[in-house]
Amino acid sequence: MEPARPAVSIKEVAHEAGVSIGTVSNVLNRPEVVSEDRRRRVLQVIDDLGYVRNDVARQLKAGRSRTVGLVVQDSANPFYNEIGLGAETAAERLGQAVIIGNAGLSPERESLYLGLFEEQRVRGVLVTPQTPERARVDALRSRGTPVVLVDEHAVSGEYCSLAVDDVEGGRSAVAHLLATGRRRITYVGGPDTLHQVRDRRAGAQRAVDAVTGASLDSVATTALTVLEGRRAGEQLLELSPDRRPDAVFAANDLLAVGLLQALVFTGRVRVPEDVALIGYDDIDFATSAIVPLSSIRQPARLIGRTAVELLEDEITGTDHRHRHVSFEPELVVRESTSPAP
Prior knowledge:
Blueprint: H1 10-17, H2 21-29, H3 36-49, H4 55-62, E1 67-72, H5 78-93, E2 97-102, H6 107-119, E3 124-127, H7 135-142, E4 147-150, E5 160-164, H8 166-179, E6 184-189, H9 195-209, E7 215-220, H10 226-237, E8 247-250, H11 253-265, E9 276-278, H12 284-288, E10 295-297, H13 300-316, E11 324-327, E12 330-332
Parallel strand pairs: 1-2, 1-3, 3-4, 4-5, 5-11, 6-7, 6-8, 8-9
Antiparallel strand pairs: 10-12
Helix pairs in contact: 1-2, 1-3, 5-13, 8-9, 10-11
């Protein structure tokens, strides 16, 4: 195997084209100030030599980057992929690009990506914090990197932030279950370190408290995954029919899919006849499940687009003030919550 060739320098391009380094720089950055003949000659040499400009160095010299860093909570959840797509759409309109880092529910990995993005001098960072403790995010911002909190409510006003009202989402989900005639509700979700899990359960409790004879139990999970949903479903199957809930609210759709698998595949429980089931996020899997899942829809792509817009306003706005943008959840009803017999 031949050794890798060293990168072609701008000095080599200038020598080969018979022009100054400044002329090559102008061709790359301000082509309108270079004559057509020289511009064509320089571009031909660039093509012949395979020159690739060092964009990081150029951006550092200019004092700004065209790259935005996005650290998501868990890329295994399609909800965060949709946020990423929305962010990419908004960034592209601004002539920018988004680099996505998957924290995988790990504060350590979140810190790793924040450090890497800072080293790369990104334009700013969008982050879905893993824990309430934000020392690493605070430090990043204090050193001059703008930060927007995504799927989070910055009550202090020190950051721009945006999120869906998860308390209202939880209330809406369980109010719907109660409206179908169910009364024994079980909430499945975890870990409690995630504010989304806590807020959705608080909303569920609010709905139950408003209906006489309704009750709310909980099954904790270690993650918001299909596998954890299946484990929770197996726990419910161990209960006798008279102790089993007649409705389940899952903290997200991945859990709901796992619950559905555990309950339906055994043939011991029918959904929705025996147990109604509703999830959260309204991912594509919800529609294509063996029993189409009711869910609480979040405008994920709109969240991503708005996050980039908030970041850009913080960077370029002349009168920027930190603010929180709240989105309303939307109930989407499908077969998994048909009215009780």
